[in-house]
């Protein structure tokens, strides 16, 4: 089998070309011996050849941990003895930005005796703007084959496929060229061959004047982000309802077929109850990935990062952290996925630190219940503002501020790279998003979520169900092993004025935060507490939950990272189980300390 | 003067990039084409201290102040 190593600068259209070459048969794989995602897929015209899509970078001189991994991946692929051809994708409209990297890789390929060729992408844009590039001259100067292609229209792709399969190593002029000469040569080639296309820049600048202008840019930003949120919450809602209805329907149809008893209970509670609660988020992840993909492909995401960079940099974050943090208000799972667009590992880790504190929608039922218990349903300011709504806003604000403060502290305690990260962002040209690759990527992402996070969530679901079901066959939760565990951990929550019942509900909420309400409902003997928390709130009030303990619970839930799917995904995406576990423990300890402080403070009044 | 000082619509030549050893940002600027003799122009200065937008060849880049200050320009080119 022959390997095709596809490399190039960011925004050179490399991934679009990869999809053309593989016919969208993209899958994410770990390249042998490394820990970074490299896309791979069989070449459409010759499935015996495997195309590897390496992360885009501007040079073999890495400036971040992430780039270092990408370059190591390329170097190990070049060192691999299996036959391979290196294809450098250059953006024909912005030739100068990829030439240094091109010559560096040409040199490494020559040293590894691997054939090297250039795929000159985006030729359609040059032609559309009547710009000319001397291909023969460029071929002669580079000393390697140069094939004009357009990933967007497909022009030239067939010829490129033939060249990739038949390429063989030839004498390269770059094999012994030192770095300093490579930089000089790249500049000379750029000066001679870069199309004089100020027209392209001017056209882009006109749109940027609007979208990045001090006033108009702010308005556009707010409008686009409002639509973004509307899409996450509103567009995905019918899909989420559909998934929920499907799972409920499937459960209602299948559970009666299972003999009554433990198996029926297991299918009903653990499989359809537990997994159903997790699968409901899949449409939201699909919609989020779809919209972020469209924003990214249109060129706007880079502009949004620019607008937010300055305010977020005060908190050790970057402008690129904005979309993940915003997504975190809906759910931490898609937010963690959204952080993949960030090139720096350090910036991404700081964003991961902040995401769990963003007030996600799973916290909403918990806050709603506790507010109903603690805050009277009265209004202020002549009936204009309800106290309960005001407190809810305050809790959300507290979550967001906590996220920023913790990120600020963590970045100052962490590696210096996170604080000194340079902001160099290429602003891609505006264009109409490519619909099918974005849909394909969104389906992939949703499928990946089900496959990876689902297995962990299912395991924990079974364990919690097992502890809650035995030894009395699910008859009495208060006599279950879960309750025994709750009583065992009671000393932890006693200083907050909370008894074992809340301990059990908190334990169960590690599955998903909203499980807290349902579990308390079961313990207090209230059915369907998830749908209507009012009777449960009344029972909790009667049971004597003090204002101090209620406030402590709110603070605990605002900070604690008791969401197994978030922890599992953090471990996967950060490629460090240790990082995820440290975050889990740190937020639990911090949550407890803050809750204890608030309990003490409120008790004074 | 540094690249950050360039006013909107003005162009100038790159004189040097302050590439003290270990400055990865300077290295990256050189990699993407901020080299001696290259013409760079300022396209936009968004408000509130946000990173500015510069054109280099056919590409546009957004740089924050600390990074743009690494690029030293010659003053002899009319804007």
Structure write-up:
The complex is a heterodimer of chains A (605) and B (79). By secondary structure, chain A is of the alpha/beta class. Chain A has helices spanning 14-22, 65-79, 99-111, 123-128, 135-142, 157-166, 179-193, 198-211, 214-254, 262-279, 282-298, 300-313, 322-328, 332-338, 345-354, 364-374, 387-413, 416-420, 435-469, 481-488, 490-493, 500-508, 515-523, 534-542, 547-559, 564-574, 577-603, and strands spanning 2-8, 27-30, 37-43, 46-53, 84-91, 116-121, 146-148, 379-380, 385-386, 424-426. Chain A is built from 27 helices and ten strands. Chain A starts with a strand and ends with a helix. Chain B is of the alpha+beta class. The two termini of chain B are 14 Å apart. The model of chain B has no long low-confidence stretch (mean pLDDT 85).
Discrete helix count of chain A: 27
**Beta-strand content of chain A:** 5-15%
| Fraction of residues in β-strands of chain B | 25-35%
Which structural category do the helix and sheet elements of chain B fall into?
A: alpha+beta
Q: Residue share in helices of chain B? A: 10-25%
The two chains with the largest interface, and their residue counts, are: A-B, 44 and 32 residues
């Amino acid at each position: 089998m022959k390997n095709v190593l596809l490399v190039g600068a960011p925004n050179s259209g490399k991934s679009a070309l990869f999809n053309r070459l593989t016919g969208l048969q993209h899958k994410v794989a770990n390249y042998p011996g490394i820990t970074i995602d490299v896309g791979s897929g069989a070449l459409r015209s010759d499935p015996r050849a495997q195309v590897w899509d390496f992360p885009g970078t501007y040079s073999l001189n890495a400036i971040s941990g992430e780039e270092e991994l990408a370059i190591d991946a390329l170097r190990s692929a070049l060192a691999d003895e299996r036959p391979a051809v290196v294809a450098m994708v250059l953006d024909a409209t912005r030739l100068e930005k990829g030439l240094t990297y091109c010559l560096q890789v040409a040199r490494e390929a020559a040293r590894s005796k691997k054939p090297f060729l250039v795929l000159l992408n985006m030729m359609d844009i040059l032609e559309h703007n009547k710009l000319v590039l001397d291909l023969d001259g460029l071929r002669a100067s580079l000393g390697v084959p140069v094939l004009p292609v357009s990933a967007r229209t497909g022009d030239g792709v067939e010829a490129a496929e033939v060249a990739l399969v038949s390429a063989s190593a030839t004498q390269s002029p770059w094999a012994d060229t030192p770095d300093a000469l490579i930089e000089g040569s790249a500049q000379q080639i750029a000066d001679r061959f870069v199309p004089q296309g100020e027209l392209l820049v001017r056209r882009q600048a006109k749109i940027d004047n609007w979208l990045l202008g001090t006033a108009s840019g702010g308005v556009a930003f707010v409008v686009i982000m409002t639509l973004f949120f509307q899409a996450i919450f509103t567009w995905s809602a019918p899909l989420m309802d559909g998934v929920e209805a499907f799972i409920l329907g499937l459960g209602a149809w299948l559970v009666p077929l299972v003999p009554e008893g433990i198996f029926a209970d297991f299918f009903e509670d653990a499989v359809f109850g537990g997994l159903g609660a997790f699968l409901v988020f899949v449409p939201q992840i699909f919609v989020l990935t779809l919209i972020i993909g469209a924003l990214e492909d249109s060129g706007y995401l880079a502009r949004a990062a620019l607008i937010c960079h300055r305010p977020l940099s005060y908190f050790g974050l970057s402008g690129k952290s904005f979309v993940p943090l915003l997504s975190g208000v809906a759910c931490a799972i898609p937010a963690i996925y959204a952080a993949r667009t960030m090139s720096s590992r350090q910036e991404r880790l700081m964003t991961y630190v902040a995401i769990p504190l963003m007030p996600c929608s799973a916290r909403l039922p918990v806050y709603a219940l506790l507010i109903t218990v603690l805050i009277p349903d009265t209004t202020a300011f002549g009936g204009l503002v309800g106290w309960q709504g005001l407190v809810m806003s305050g809790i959300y604000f507290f979550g967001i501020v906590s996220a920023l403060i913790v990120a600020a502290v963590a970045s100052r305690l962490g590696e210096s790279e996170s604080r000194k990260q340079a902001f160099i962002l290429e602003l891609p040209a505006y264009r109409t998003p490519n619909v099918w690759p974005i849909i394909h990527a969104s389906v992939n992402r949703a499928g990946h979520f089900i496959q990876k996070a689902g297995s962990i969530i299912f395991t924990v679901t079974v364990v919690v169900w097992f502890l809650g079901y035995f030894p009395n066959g699910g008859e009495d939760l208060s006599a279950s092993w879960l309750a025994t565990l709750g009583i065992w951990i009671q000393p932890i929550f006693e200083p907050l004025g909370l008894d074992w019942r809340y301990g059990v509900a908190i334990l169960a909420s590690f599955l998903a935060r909203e499980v807290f309400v349902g579990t308390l409902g079961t313990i207090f003997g209230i059915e369907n507490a998830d749908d209507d928390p009012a009777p449960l709130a009344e029972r909790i009030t009667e049971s004597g939950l003090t204002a101090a303990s209620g406030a402590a619970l709110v603070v605990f839930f605002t900070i604690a990272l008791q969401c197994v799917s978030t922890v599992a995904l953090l471990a996967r995406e950060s490629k460090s189980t240790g990082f995820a576990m440290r975050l889990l423990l740190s937020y639990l300890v911090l949550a407890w300390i803050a809750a204890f402080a608030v309990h003490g403070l409120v008790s004074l009044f | 003067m540094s690249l950050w000082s360039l006013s909107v619509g003005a162009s100038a030549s790159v004189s040097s990039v302050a590439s003290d050893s270990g400055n990865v940002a300077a290295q990256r600027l050189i990699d993407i084409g901020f080299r001696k003799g290259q013409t760079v122009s300022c396209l936009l200065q968004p408000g509130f201290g946000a990173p500015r937008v510069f054109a280099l060849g056919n590409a546009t880049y957004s740089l924050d102040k600390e990074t743009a200050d690494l690029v030293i320009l010659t003053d002899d080119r009319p804007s």
